[in-house]
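haha ok so turns out i had the wrong file open the whole time. this is the CORRECT one, sorry everyone. sequence first:
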Amino acid sequence: MAPLAPPYLVGMDDLDIRDTMVAIIPSVVSLTSPKTSPVLLKGMHEGPALAARGSSNFIDTEKIAIQPCTGAPLDATCMTPTSIDLSVGSPGSTVTFFATQLGPDLYVQQLVATAGPSGLHLTHPIFKTWPAMGSDMADGRPDANDTFYNVAIDIAAGAKSTLAATTSFVGFSATDMISIQFDELGPMQ
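then structure:
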């Protein structure tokens, strides 16, 4: 008889398993400090070892100020989207979006990745907020929902890809800086 899966690997599909790993107490995965997640620090265990992927190989963009909209996208207050430069991995590439503060959350529309002259390859973008006051978050605070956990795309030079028509980042403020962390970011493969 095959051994049962640990309780944090229970679910009908990958999304269910991910949700269980994030929600289980005591925690297995730390979204606020991924490098210190117990699943990575476990050490020796039964079964095959995890592939050596390195938890410190993430690629981070620079922190930038959000250009908040106070009206509907493309009205007089929203003529300029927030643009995050992806040159750290793919020169000339960007992610752009329109952002509106809705209560405690940041509502984002028209979230688009645009490839530079070498094209764009990206996997698992994690949006991070950088609270200005009263925070001890040295690495920023990631999107608690890990909204784009399953994104892996290649975009040809000069082409665009919509990551989301609309989405929300819970607890993000339009007055705080924002950045994106990627598992992989580079020219089109």
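The helical segments are 14-23, 38-41.
again sry for the mixup
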